[in-house]
Amino acid sequence: MKTEEQLDELISALSKERSPQRDLWPGLEQALQNTPQLRPENSAPQTDKVVPLRTPQPARVSWARGAFAGAIAASLLMTAILLPQLHNASGPVAPARVVASASDPEDAGNSWLTQAVASRVQVLDDMLPRLSHMEFVPEGFGNWQQQLGIWMSASEQLEDALRQQPNNRQLQRQYQTLQRQNAQYLQRLLMLSQA
Amino acid sequence: MHLMNTTPLTGLLLAALLAPASAWAEKQSINVTRTVSADESVEIEVMRGDVIIVGVKNKVFHVEGQLDEKAEGFELESSGGHTVFRVKMPRRVSSGWGSSDEGSQLSIEVPEGAHVEFEGVNANVRVTGIEGGTEITTVNGGIEARKLAGPVSLETVNGRIDSRSNKGYLTLSTVNGRIIDESDADSLEMESVNGSVSSRSTSREIEVSTVNGRAQLTLDGTERLEFSTVNGEIEVLLSGSKSPYIEGSSVSGSIGLTLPDITNARVSIEASAGGSIDNGLTDDPVMKAKYGPMRNLEFIMGDGKGRIDLQTVSGDLSVKR
Questions:
Q1: Does residue A170 belong to the interface with chain B, where contact is any CB pair within 8 Å?
Q2: pTM over 0.80, yes/no
Q3: Which of A21, A127, A155, A9 has its CA nearest to residue A68?
Q4: Which domain holds residue B277?
């Protein structure tokens, strides 16, 4: 049995700091953003909301997203069309237009991501009818909704990553690659379904 | 029944099948040859089946084998240095009526200096000996490529890519499949979403990206290496390079760099939120930010000519000799 003195020695030898087992900053950031700044005096007391701390998730294949698959398809297709406008001819990833208007590199990266995401959301309604009115699902594309779920999940992971590393040009390039792959897939799907 | 197409080179060759569709339960044979240029541009479209494409010394385009049992014939158009071969499929080839042994079984010869573009859906492709450039795209099928040169792009969604002895400018891309590469390309680019990537390469320039897939790279003499992953693990052994330029990033995936021959480099490694750094190259310590979880490591080896720049959010980074 250890004496109290020995225990004190062991305690004093312990590290004064303890690191979290996972990345807590995204969750803190989200919690801060969701925290109301002002609360009306007469309002009912609010229960503190538990904000789940985000950790990078593996690819999720969710059939529940099937209803949105057409919209996803549409957005990704257009993203692939619009994304090239964000980079100049000398390199595949430099967001030329954004860089020109943003002096802070981090702002430039954030703007790049905002535009990239917005460009696919923007056309969602336009493309949805095409996918929802496919005459038939061609052979080889029976799992197209699942496939879109995979791309969607990967895109979300990259978007999360780019929010944390907005100027990471490798991630930007990876994001573009994903949209291109997805766009090509969808183009073939639509082409064969209306052949 | 044996289909032999005899129309002129410049004409559209459509083997219109006069029999009703019900008569096409069996595969139809094909055996056609056209004389083409040594650097012919060739487009091939085969929706289903197994296709072998071989570069040969003769200036010919030759197709032999059996057409898809659902095929309505084929198109072969060849003029002005451009050849198009397409297996004609019915307007509706719906999902759900296919099995692995269905589809075309074709062997195609092209001049070794040709540039070949192939498109398929449920098609497995084996391609070899083409030096004028190759682009293979399929959706649910594997790609096996040997002894290619020029710009080479191999892309599948749900299939394995097996690339060996290829040169030139090589791009390998899959979503869920696996990439296996043993190449001597001038440059090598590999992209995967969920599939794993493994490469043994002497390419000077290499770029690798995955989202969740694992990458294992055994490299010799590579001068420029860029890689990124979100959740995947990346392991690199780079020998024969004294002053490499290496840039890598991950979100939560781990990165391990083994550099037995490195002598000159400016090294910058950063873990921004919870990741760890292990320095096995020098005795320089990892610095921890006074506030927040950031850690970083910076030092210069030799004359600092090379560059190692690694970033992670919450992954583990290690460098060693």
A1: yes
A2: no
A3: A127
A4: 238-321
